[in-house]
Amino acid sequence: MKFCWSTLKVKNLEESLKFYHEIVGLKTNKRFNAGPGREIVFLGDGETKIELICDEEVKEVSYGEHISLGFEVDCIDEKINFIKEKGIEIHSGPFQPNPNTKFFYVLDPNGLKIQFVENK
């Protein structure tokens, strides 16, 4: 079995696309209308894929506090500086549970926790 993608319902597609393009670094793979008032965008390639669904009938989304998406970065300190330059608040961290791993969280425009992790 192979994992395909994570699906996220979003309130504002353009705001979410800006975040996942600029902050996470994912590129748009496919974008299409999926019926009246519904648009779908697939981001990423290879093993990292996210599906964003924007439905004009959905006014609020809720992911829960115990769900996050993790993305590996080369240098956690550089990513923290980049995040701060973009005016995005650090949700929590950085944490270093062992000498080889360091990470922190931000929130995407819909309140989903996004984890950036450096594996040394």
TrEMBL record:
Gene3D superfamilies: 2,3-Dihydroxybiphenyl 1,2-Dioxygenase, domain 1
Name of the protein this chain belongs to: Glyoxalase
PANTHER family cross-referenced by the UniProt entry: GLYOXALASE_BLEOMYCIN RESISTANCE PROTEIN_DIOXYGENASE, LYASE, PUTATIVE-RELATED-RELATED
Matching Pfam families: Glyoxalase
Signal peptide start-end: none
VOC domain residues: 2-119
Database matches in InterPro entries: Fosfomycin_Res_Enzymes (IPR051332), Glyas_Bleomycin-R_OHBP_Dase (IPR029068), Glyas_Fos-R_dOase_dom (IPR004360), VOC_core (IPR037523)
